[in-house]
């Protein structure tokens, strides 16, 4: 199935959902709720090594909550990261493949169950392979600053992402999700890499923002979206892991800067201290606020809406309930 047909799958899903599909929520958050210890440079990806069945359980919980798209547990899963833990390259690649397999198995098991129920309100979900930013691999908070240092150039970023992208594509997801991209350089690297590798899976690229106006690097989103707008590989662009208070204005900004579909999945509003490795208290959205704002975000132009860090299946259930009843 080529790029055009796979993009049509996503378009059809969005239409079935009434114009806006629901993405799942915080994966690491839900792992921690179940007792997983993920204070680790691999973050949620450590569960691929320690407890893959828990990963499948979390996918099932988000599907039950109404997610139309489930995102794999590979955000911080990289070959160098796994190798640094003593795994071989082959074992590392196998774990990346497993992140997709677990999501696909959960999706298929769930759909096999609910599709037999008359009058159910679910859609057959799509699986998006998560590809975290270079800063996520560094685990130093630089995905929220965009400051990768003078030695990191376009070629280095493409080399960093290349093999992981190849392995994830080979595993057969429906979509690719590049997440928390903090600067124009990495966005351009992702676009060029998709073209160089002749990838025929539609992708979205999500930036984050720490001020609600620009990318973490200080670059304007107009600059950051320049290469993305020209790419047939990019189906959607948007924002993830930014405070929900920023989302309304950012959707309005993006609708003026792109003709791509817009995807947003903010965090709860808590602030991550990348150096101290902890969440800092801040103005937060609860499930009620997410439910209230989801239709507003949709009406402003978002085609894909979900949650990121510190959101849970109950958040996604609230978003899904709100979008499906209006």
Automatic annotation (TrEMBL):
InterPro entries: BHMT-like, HCY_dom, HCY_dom_sf, Hcy_S-methyltransferase. Residues 9-323 form the Hcy-binding domain. SUPFAM superfamilies: Homocysteine S-methyltransferase. Signal peptide: none annotated. Zn(2+) binds at residues 241, 308-309. The keyword Zinc applies. Pfam families: S-methyl_trans (PF02574). Keywords: Metal-binding, Methyltransferase, Transferase, Zinc. Its cofactor is Zn(2+). This is Homocysteine S-methyltransferase 1-like.
